Amino acid sequence: MPGLKVGHAQDLSGITGVTVVLAEDGAVGGVSVLGGAPGTRETDLLRPSYTVDVVHAIFLAGGSAFGLDCARGVVQYLEERGVGLSVPPARVPLVAGAIIFDLDIGDCRARPTPEMAYAAASSAQPTNCARGSIGAGTGATVGKLFGWDFAMKGGLGVASGEIEGFKVAVLVVVNALGDIYDPDSGRILAGAYDRKEKRFLAGRFRAGPGGGGEKELFSLGFGRGTEFGGNTTIGVVGVDAALTKEEVARLALMAQAGLARAIRPVFTPYDGDTMFALATGKSSKTMPDQRIERSRLLTAIGGLAQELAARAVLDAVTHAEGLGGVPSAREILAGG
Fold it and tell me: How far apart are the C-alpha atoms of 172 and 194, rounded to whole Å?
């Protein structure tokens, strides 16, 4: 994505990490927060009615609320390079971010630090397509509706495409309480899995009302894993179009809606689901002035972003590696 760079840092012994998306030339930013228990920084700044429309970096981190401290490392990195909003006599880097709850895997005292965030920013590359158990996805898990014993590893996923001459890319960190579904086939790819019976626990529930699936779900302890805010998927959608702040906010919302195609449940009272959007304006193709045509193009870009968000979720769980005693979907399903 022209104008954006991505970097990761992780603590594999503590099982946590941070991912940084840099927009050093500045990008118009937006955000959509649909989860009931978010942990975020500077999201008010990105709302359409607020004055400043530029952002210089987004960080995604583990560590629950402790991970918000990663902002200091990103701000330091940008300040040292003279990147920021000109507010004489200084330049102020504008950095937003969000966190996931990963304290229940690895060492709960291990948190992504400002130093890790600085390292992630320093290593950022324009073509970084690393995915799986890396960066903020290091401690991510999925399928916790029935408790920790049935969980699988989540992770970080990416997907990109092009429409109407504009490039669109989505990066997500999947730490979902619920299961991950292939939206095309309806098949569960990762989630709460009974390793003895070799089946996904939500499988019979999906047969529909009246089949006895609901009764079985609750007898198995459906909802046991909802004591904490573990159902959080956070991400960034980027586009090289020159969009207004209002348009970027709509793009963030449209992209976030794509998560519902692949994650069930999503946007619950326990989650912190948050999607950032960045418009770099680096495309050689210009957006039209006419409002109707701009809306048509934004619809096309947002529609693609929805598809990419769902694909990025699948990318995260299919590339995840088992850590901290939590197996990946590849490990479980390969074993039968």
Answer: 26
**Cα 191 to chain centroid, rounded:** 17
Q: How far apart are CA 133 and CA 286, in angstroms?
A: 37
Do the Cβ atoms of 77 and 59 come closer than 8 Å? no
Tens digit of pLDDT for each residue in 258-289? 999 999 988 888 788 999 999 999 999 999 88
Task: Note the helical H segments in 171-244.
Answer: 213-219
pLDDT digits (tens, 9 = 90+) for 170-193: 999 999 988 999 999 999 999 999
**Structure token digits, residue 51:** 């004055």
State how far the alpha carbon of 69 is from the alpha carbons of 18, 74, 91, 156, 269, in Å. Answer: 11, 10, 20, 20, 24
* Residue 144 CA to its chain's centroid (Å): 18
Query: Omega into 288 within 30° of 0, i.e. cis?
Result: no
Q: How many domains does the chain have?
A: 1
> Residue 237 belongs to a domain with what CATH number?
3.60.70.12
Residue 127, both tokens = 């073509």
**Residue 22: closest CA among 76, 74, 91, 90:** 74
Provide the residue range defining the domain that includes 37.
5-334
Q: Where are the beta strands (DSSP E) in 240-282?
A: 263-264, 274-279
Rg of the chain over Cα atoms, rounded to whole angstroms, equals 19
Q: How far apart (Å, rounded) are the C-alpha atoms in residues 306 and 260? A: 9
